[in-house]
Amino acid sequence: MIPELELNDGFGIPAVGFGTWPMKGAEATAATLTAIEAGYRLLDTALVYDNEDAVGEAVRRSGIRDELTVTTKIPWDRLAYEDAREAFRESQAALGLDRIDLLLLHSPGREGDLYREAWRALVDLRAEGSVRSIGVSNFTPDQLRRIVADTGVVPAVNQVLLHPYQPQREVREVHTELGIVTESYSPIDLNPMHPTDLLSEPVIVEIAAAHDVTPARAVLRWHVQQSLLPIPKSGDAARQRQNLDVFDFELSSAELDAISALERTDH
Ligand SMILES: NC(=O)c1ccc[n+]([C@@H]2O[C@H](COP(=O)([O-])OP(=O)(O)OC[C@H]3O[C@@H](n4cnc5c(N)ncnc54)[C@H](OP(=O)(O)O)[C@@H]3O)[C@@H](O)[C@H]2O)c1
Predict the structure, then answer these.
(1) DSSP category for residue 190
(2) pTM for this model (two decimals)
(3) Strand, coil or helix: what is 236?
(4) Are residues 88 and 75 in contact, defined by beta-carbon separation less than 8 angstroms?
(5) CA 81–ligand 1 middle distance (angstroms)
(6) Of 109, 142, 163, 182, which residue is the least packed, with the fewest Cβ within 10 Å?
(7) Handedness of CA 49, 55, 154, 222 (dihedral sign)
(8) Pairing between strand 4-6 and 12-14?
(9) CB 151, CB 129: distance < 8 Å
(10) Which of 186-192's residues contact partners 24+ apart within 8 Å by CB, and which partners?
């Protein structure tokens, strides 16, 4: 069993999740099924990933839908109130699920403040019972404060790009203040569009060796030990298991600090 973090709406959420982008079709279904078999109970998809049908298929075939926390996201170009609601209905249909466990705004968008309307749409969807928990992604501290001031409703999570090179200290401070769980995307900094050599950093290789774990496990442990919720993606069953196997060793505070010292201000 994976430990859980508590959300500010009273629900629990698994402390590690499974990223599904950029997989699609049969590959996404097969990988999601092996991830569920490995023990993942939090799945991360989005309307723009164009794989909700494949993820939904895996959810049905798993036979344990009620044990899963299925996350999807409203696209950044669908933020007007009715557009957001319509995008949600498309996600529901693609996933083949009536109820979504965690619905996020994928991004506040580049211009304007339509995200404020979209947040109202999420608040209403939750009140109507279609969604269990609501949150955001890629929101800045100011944007978080604005939607909380508008509605009085604090997002349960903010999913942000976060790994040792880019630890997002500023937004995490606001999360702590408001009671928002930090979800880390690209947690090992291997986004296929711009992967880095994070896992080859000597300090990480050394710490991993000291605990007899892989560099990926050491980095994921760095997240988990700080109550950051990483959602690594892997299409490979062995790496999926490895990425979840981060609860039986502990990094010292000196090791956590050494990994945190990799922070880059130019990243
Ligand atoms: N909210 C947003 O704006 C946003 C943006 C980007 C991503 N995301 C979400 O976050 C998830 C994860 O982010 P990401 O895919 O960008 O980056 P990531 O999880 O840091 O890296 C994924 C890459 O790492 C490889 N990998 C996985 N486990 C490994 C291991 N133990 N050792 C070595 N390599 C390993 C994978 O290859 P294999 O598949 O071959 O193992 C894949 O190429 C996405 O799937 C998506 O759900 C959200």
Answers:
(1) -
(2) 0.98
(3) coil
(4) no
(5) 31
(6) 142
(7) negative
(8) antiparallel
(9) no
(10) 186/161, 186/162, 187/162, 187/163, 187/219, 187/220, 187/223, 187/228, 187/230, 187/231, 187/232, 188/163, 188/216, 188/219, 188/220, 188/230, 188/232, 189/163, 189/164, 189/165, 192/22
Report which residue type is found at 240.
Q
Cβ neighbours of residue 20 closer than 8 Å, sequence gap 6 or more: 28, 31, 32, 43, 44, 45, 49, 51, 54, 55, 233
Provide the residue count of the chain.
Answer: 267
49 noted as active-site residue: yes
pLDDT along the chain (267 residues), means of 10: 96 98 98 98 98 98 98 98 98 96 97 96 98 98 98 98 98 98 98 97 98 98 98 98 98 98 84
Residue located nearest, by CA, to atom 24 of ligand 1: 190
Which residues neighbour 79 within 8 Å (Cβ) at sequence distance 6 or greater?
105, 108, 109, 114, 115, 117, 118
The rounded Å distance from CA 253 to ligand 1 centre is 26
